[in-house]
């Protein structure tokens, strides 16, 4: 019985040793897999958080074709290289005067949304009030420029692209449209002009001297800083927004870019 018992004990010990080793391999293998999955999920989460913090830049890269189309339109490039048709410029001047008047109401609605939805930790109200105050000067500027160029503003009839754009602004004024979506559109409208006209002020351009004032109005460093402040507000809002709100904000950005392209087309002789 002794040897037999020893044999069984040996077998039993060997089995326990083997099973323990296999158990550890399986257990730690699964543990390593879990750690790897956890690391991947964390890395993905980190990337998503970074993208949300810089959502605007992510979108501009994603939609670079339409963004370039809006900020480097042939109408803008013709101003930059000095070949602009002055009739086209006068068309733009008259149509944009009509647009700005509608834009005032839109900005007022964004200000109200900010008052209701923003905690104002980033000074949203101050930034928006500064922009709104500048619109009074902008309307007067249009009147002065129209007089200089012989454009009768009272005779201007809004063209289709202009009416479509103004209707789009009106849709954003709805109480159902969240502040994050509206401020995204607001930033995009301002940023397109800033990027477009700043391009006409760069070294080596042939922008006509008569149009330098126009380009300076939106291409100056002060307006650029204002647009940067708006961009910071938008990125901060998007970083905290739910997925549905983010999707709507991205659509609003694309809508603005498309309307801007159509507005330039209209000014350049399109329908």
From TrEMBL:
GO MF, one annotated term: thiaminase activity
Gene3D superfamilies linked: Heme oxygenase-like
Biological pathway: Cofactor biosynthesis; thiamine diphosphate biosynthesis
Domain of life: Eukaryota
One Pfam family here: TENA_THI-4
Domain named Thiaminase-2/PQQC: residues: 61-267
Keyword terms: Disulfide bond, Hydrolase, Thiamine biosynthesis
Root EC class: hydrolase
GO terms under biological process: thiamine biosynthetic process
EC number of this enzyme: 3.5.99.2
GO cellular component assignments: cytosol
Catalytic activity: N-formyl-4-amino-5-aminomethyl-2-methylpyrimidine + H2O = 4-amino-5-aminomethyl-2-methylpyrimidine + formate; 4-amino-5-aminomethyl-2-methylpyrimidine + H2O = 4-amino-5-hydroxymethyl-2-methylpyrimidine + NH4(+)
InterPro entries named among the record's database cross-references: Haem_Oase-like_multi-hlx (IPR016084), Thiaminase-2/PQQC (IPR004305), Thiamine_Salvage_TenA (IPR050967)
Family: Belongs to the thiaminase-2 family.
Entry protein name: aminopyrimidine aminohydrolase
Species in which this protein is naturally found: Acer negundo (Box elder)
């Amino acid at each position: 019985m002794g040897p037999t018992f020893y044999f069984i004990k040996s077998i039993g010990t060997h089995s326990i040793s083997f099973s323990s080793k296999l158990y550890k391999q399986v257990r730690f293998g699964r543990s390593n897999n879990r750690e790897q999955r956890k690391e991947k999920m964390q890395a993905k989460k980190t990337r998503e958080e970074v993208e949300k913090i810089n959502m605007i830049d992510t979108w501009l890269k994603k939609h670079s074709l339409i963004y370039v189309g809006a900020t480097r339109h042939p109408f803008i490039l013709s101003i930059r290289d000095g070949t602009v048709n002055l009739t086209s410029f006068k068309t733009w001047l008259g149509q944009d005067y009509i647009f700005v008047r509608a834009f005032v109401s839109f900005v007022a609605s964004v200000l109200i949304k900010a008052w209701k939805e923003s905690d104002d930790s980033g000074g949203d109200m101050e930034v928006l009030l500064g922009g709104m105050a500048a619109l009074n000067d902008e309307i007067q500027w249009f009147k002065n420029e129209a007089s200089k160029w012989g454009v009768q503003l009272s005779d201007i009839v809004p063209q289709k692209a202009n009416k479509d754009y103004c209707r789009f602004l009106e849709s954003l004024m709805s109480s159902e449209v969240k502040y994050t979506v509206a401020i995204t559109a607001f930033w995009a409208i301002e940023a397109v002009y800033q990027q477009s006209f700043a391009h006409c002020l760069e070294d080596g351009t042939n922008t006509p001297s008569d149009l330098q004032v126009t380009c300076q109005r939106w291409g100056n460093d002060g307006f650029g800083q204002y647009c940067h402040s708006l961009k910071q507000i938008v990125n901060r809002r998007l970083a905290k927004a739910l997925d549905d709100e983010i999707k709507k904000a991205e659509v609003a950005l694309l809508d603005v870019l498309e309307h801007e392209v159509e507005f330039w087309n209209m000014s350049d002789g399109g329908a």
